[in-house]
Design goal:
The chain has about 70 residues and is mainly alpha-helical. The chain is built from three helices and no strands.
């Protein structure tokens, strides 16, 4: 089960990186990191970092859209 989880996680992660120009490919990267984080502690730190940066960027976009709407 562990080998299957690592293989599928690595495929999702690499596939998301290859398709990084397409919208929605970040979900593949996050899914791959999530599967890899069960068995690989470094992937867990990458997952936390990516979640933190996605939260910060979503707040910036929300703030930008709100200010644009109030003008």
């Amino acid at each position: 089960m562990r080998v299957l989880r690592l293989t599928f996680g690595a495929l999702l992660f690499v596939g998301g990186l290859v398709l990084s120009l397409l919208p929605g490919s970040i979900l593949l990267v996050i899914g791959g990191l999530m599967l890899l984080s069960y068995d690989w502690p470094r992937a867990r730190s990458w997952l936390k970092y990516s979640q933190k940066t996605m939260t910060i960027s979503a707040r910036k976009v929300d703030r930008f859209l709100l200010m644009r709407k109030l003008r």
